[in-house]
Amino acid sequence: MVLSLKDVVVGQTILPPRVLIYGRPGVGKTTFASKAKNPIFIQTEDGADVAGAARFPKAESFEQINEAIDTLIAEKHDHGTVVIDTLDWLAPLIYKKTVEDGKTNPNYKTKNLMQIEDFGYGKGYEYADGHFRAVLDKLNILRSTKGMAIIMLAHSELKRYEDPASEGYDRWMPKLQKKAAATCMEYSDIVGFANYFTSMKSVDKGFGQTKNIAIGDGSRVLYTQEKPSFIAKSRYDIPHELEFEWSALANAISPKPPKKEKTNGSD
User: For residues 38 and 230, what is the distance between their CA atoms, to the nearest angstrom?
Assistant: First the structure.
C-alpha cells in the first residue's frame, strides 16, 4: 500500500472504550459491568449469575473463550458490551493451553512440560503472551465491527514496586503475572482501581499527641489516575476519582459539546 496525504485522518475517532477494572473481592466489579450497555459476560469464574446478566456458560478452557468471542463476531445480536470476568481466572486457561502447545510444538524444544514455569527463564509467559494478545485482537474486532465496549475485570493484589527514583513500596495491581498485566493494561483505554472510599481523621491520644485513623462510609470509588498506592490510567480527559458506577464513567467519557466562545464581551 502506498500512502499519500489523502490517507491522513484528522479529528477524533469515537469508538467504544476498552476498560480494565480491578479491585478487592466484593467491591462490586461484576455489578458495575452488568450496568453497561446490554452486556454479555464471558465467564471464567462465577459471578455474572448473581448479577442476572446475559452470559455464556463458564469457560473451562481457552478454546471455549475463543468460541464465545467468535460467536459474538459471527452472529447477529444486540449486545453493546462484552465483559471478561475475570482476567486472573482467564490466565490459568491460557497457561494450560501454552503448556499443551509446548508438548506438541517442536519449536519450543522443551521436554517434560507440566506447568508454565517449566519452559524456564520466563519463556513460558512470553509464549503465553501471544494467546493473551490473540484474545485482545478478537475483542478489538468486536469493538470495531460490532460497536461493542470492552470491559475486563480482575482482582487486585499488593505487589512490591521498586521505584528507581526512590525506595520501593507496595501498591495495588491487577492480580496477574507481570507480562500479562503489562499487555492488558497497555491495551486498555482506562485502567481503573475500584476501592472503598476512606479518609483520614486525626484523633487526640492525650498528652499533646495525635494519631490518624482511616474512616469510611461504605461508598466506593473508581480511581483513574496512578498514585503511589495503586496503578491506574486513562486516555480520556476524565476526573481522577469517580463514583464506582458504570453511569458515572460513561457520562465522564461521553463526547462533550464544544465550549461556546465568548463574543462581544458577553458570557
Answer: 30
User: What is the secondary structure of 156-208 as a DSSP string?
Assistant: EEEEEE--TTS--EEEEEESS-HHHHHHHHHH-SEEEEEEE--EEEEEEEETT
The whole-angstrom separation of Cα 23 and Cα 199 is 18
Residue pLDDT, tens place only, 84-100: 999 999 999 999 999 99
Q: Helix count (H) and strand count (E) of the chain?
A: 7, 12
Residue among 253, 252, 255, 237 at smallest CA distance from 17 = 253
Q: Where are the alpha helices (DSSP H) in the chain?
A: 29-34, 48-51, 62-74, 87-104, 123-145, 178-187, 246-253
CA separation for the pair 155, 86 (Å, rounded): 8
The predicted model scores a pTM of 0.86
CB proximity list for 208: less than 8 A, separation 6 or greater: none
Place of cell 460490532: 146
pLDDT, tens only, 38-73: 999 999 998 778 778 999 999 999 999 999 999 999
